[in-house]
């Protein structure tokens, strides 16, 4: 397990072992790479980041991940695979499950009040984009990218 302090001063624990945290994940993140580019959403306040969000009532983590990717980017995701999870020690501790996914198609969508669009980033842009959200700049994100890049499919 990797423990670090994020850019907002909160303790975060990152694990690549499923079920390591006592708290049930209610948030998701999705790493999707297609044609050597990473799928990102452009959050109007935070900046560029991987798609993700909260699980809605009655949804599984996988259903939430697929829905969030589509709502934030217009991309259809398939073949979700559990990758990691992390716990953020805020006033109320919460956990996120991180998935990898494959590209299954894309539609033009109207972006909502939260997101301003989507972008495909090269490996270099994915770590050096000038408008990366704070989530994309922390030690945990760097560790997840390191582990992802060790897998041949990425």
From TrEMBL:
<dbReference type="InterPro" id="IPR015797">
    <property type="entry name" value="NUDIX_hydrolase-like_dom_sf"/>
</dbReference>
<dbReference type="Pfam" id="PF00293">
    <property type="entry name" value="NUDIX"/>
</dbReference>
<dbReference type="InterPro" id="IPR020476">
    <property type="entry name" value="Nudix_hydrolase"/>
</dbReference>
<feature type="domain" description="Nudix hydrolase">
    <location>
        <begin position="21"/>
        <end position="149"/>
    </location>
</feature>
<keyword id="KW-0378">Hydrolase</keyword>
<comment type="similarity">
    <text>Belongs to the Nudix hydrolase family.</text>
</comment>
<protein>
    <submittedName>
        <fullName>Nucleoside triphosphatase YtkD</fullName>
    </submittedName>
</protein>
<dbReference type="InterPro" id="IPR020084">
    <property type="entry name" value="NUDIX_hydrolase_CS"/>
</dbReference>
<dbReference type="InterPro" id="IPR000086">
    <property type="entry name" value="NUDIX_hydrolase_dom"/>
</dbReference>
<dbReference type="InterPro" id="IPR014078">
    <property type="entry name" value="Nudix_YtkD"/>
</dbReference>
């Amino acid at each position: 397990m990797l423990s670090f302090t994020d850019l907002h001063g909160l303790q975060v624990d990152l694990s690549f072992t499923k079920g390591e945290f006592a708290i049930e994940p209610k948030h998701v993140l999705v790493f999707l790479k297609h044609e050597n580019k990473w799928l990102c959403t452009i959050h109007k306040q935070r900046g560029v980041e991987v798609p993700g969000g909260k699980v809605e009532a009655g949804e599984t983590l996988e259903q939430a991940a697929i829905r969030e990717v589509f709502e934030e980017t217009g991309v259809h995701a398939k073949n979700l695979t559990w990758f990691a999870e992390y716990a953020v020690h805020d006033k109320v501790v919460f956990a996120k499950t991180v998935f990898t996914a494959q590209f299954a198609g894309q539609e033009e969508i109207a972006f909502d009040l939260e997101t301003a669009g989507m972008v495909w980033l090269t490996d270099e842009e994915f770590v050096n984009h000038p408008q990366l959200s704070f989530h994309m700049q922390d030690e945990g994100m760097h560790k997840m990218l390191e582990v992802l890049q060790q897998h041949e499919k990425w």
